[in-house]
Amino acid sequence: MAKVTKRAAAGEVVRMHETTGSATGSFSASIAAALRGTKAEIPDPTGVEIVKQWADVKAGKLVRYHSTVRIAYRQTLRAVKG
């Protein structure tokens, strides 16, 4: 009888990476800046969750927008040898 070895199936998990971006134009621009800042680490994001947004005010006007976001991405799991 042949020896049967069990291997864990390779799959994917969703990981989250938290980062902050800022811009002078809008909250949308600050979210886009946060995404651009992680492009080297996360080449193919699958979603964004907004954690916190705030703005700097000068002379009664919004001058800089900030967004803290969690960026979702998929990571492939490797099969366990053994």
What does this structure look like?
The protein has 82 residues and is mainly beta. It has a single domain (12-76), classed as Dodecin subunit-like, CATH 3.30.1660.10. Helices cover 13% and strands 51% of the residues. It is built from 1 helix and 3 strands, in the order E-H-E-E. It has one helix at residues 27-37, and strands at residues 12-23, 45-58, 61-76. It has a 3-stranded antiparallel sheet. Strand 2 and strand 3 form a beta hairpin. It starts with 11 loop residues before the first strand and ends in a 6-residue tail after the last strand. The mean pLDDT is 89.
Topology diagram in text:
Layout: E1 12-23, H1 27-37, E2 45-58, E3 61-76
Antiparallel strand pairs: 1-3, 2-3
Summary tags:
3-stranded antiparallel β-sheet; mainly beta; elongated; single chain; Dodecin subunit-like; 82 residues; 51% strand
